[in-house]
C-alpha cells in the first residue's frame, strides 16, 4: 500500500474564498479529500455520531490528550473544550483520503510544529478593499466582526510574505480563473 498522502493546509484571510474553493473541489472530487474529525467535551446533540461529527471525550480524556501533546490546537468555548489532534489528521490519510486543513495563520504556525509535513497554500483577496466588499456581501458577520476580520487580514497577508511561510499563493481575483489555478495546484501536488 502506498504511503498516506500529505495533508494540505488552506489558509488566508477570512473572506478570501477558502470555503468557496473547497466546496467546489469537494463537489468535483467527492471521494478524494476529507476533513479531520474534531474533538470536544460537549455532549452530543441529537443525531450526532461519535467519531463522525466529533470525537466526544470526557474532560479528563481531553486533558490527558493535551498533556500527552496529542493536540495541534485546542480552545475552550462556553465551558467546553474543542481541538484537533495530529492523529485526527493522520487518520484521514489512513482512510485513503487527503486531509484538508482550513485554518488561520495561528493554526498554520502550530501545524508547523508537528510532524504532519503538509503542503501550505494561501488564498488571498486581490486587495483589502475587495475583501471588505466580499465580507459585507456575504452578510454573515456584524459590523464589529467585519472590522476584526479586516485587521486580522493584514496580519495574514504580512505573514504570507515571510520566506517559506507558504508553498503556493493563489490570489482570488476572478473566481473562475482563481479556482482553475487552485485546482491545478491541488492536482499537481496530489499526483506527485
Ligand atoms: N473571486 C470572487 N469574486 C467575488 N466574490 C467572491 C469570490 N470568491 C469568493 N467570493 C465571495 O466572497 C465571500 C467570502 O468567501 P468565502 O466565504 O469562501 O471566504 P472564506 O475564506 O472561506 O472565509 P472564512 O475564513 O470566514 O470562512 C463569499 O460571499 C463568496 O461568495
From TrEMBL:
<dbReference type="InterPro" id="IPR008145">
    <property type="entry name" value="GK/Ca_channel_bsu"/>
</dbReference>
<dbReference type="InterPro" id="IPR020590">
    <property type="entry name" value="Guanylate_kinase_CS"/>
</dbReference>
<dbReference type="GO" id="GO:0005829">
    <property type="term" value="C:cytosol"/>
</dbReference>
<comment type="similarity">
    <text>Belongs to the guanylate kinase family.</text>
</comment>
<feature type="domain" description="Guanylate kinase-like">
    <location>
        <begin position="5"/>
        <end position="187"/>
    </location>
</feature>
<dbReference type="InterPro" id="IPR017665">
    <property type="entry name" value="Guanylate_kinase"/>
</dbReference>
<keyword id="KW-0808">Transferase</keyword>
<keyword id="KW-0547">Nucleotide-binding</keyword>
<dbReference type="InterPro" id="IPR027417">
    <property type="entry name" value="P-loop_NTPase"/>
</dbReference>
<dbReference type="InterPro" id="IPR008144">
    <property type="entry name" value="Guanylate_kin-like_dom"/>
</dbReference>
<protein>
    <recommendedName>
        <fullName>Guanylate kinase</fullName>
        <ecNumber>2.7.4.8</ecNumber>
    </recommendedName>
</protein>
<dbReference type="GO" id="GO:0005524">
    <property type="term" value="F:ATP binding"/>
</dbReference>
<keyword id="KW-0418">Kinase</keyword>
<dbReference type="Pfam" id="PF00625">
    <property type="entry name" value="Guanylate_kin"/>
</dbReference>
<dbReference type="GO" id="GO:0004385">
    <property type="term" value="F:GMP kinase activity"/>
</dbReference>
<keyword id="KW-0067">ATP-binding</keyword>
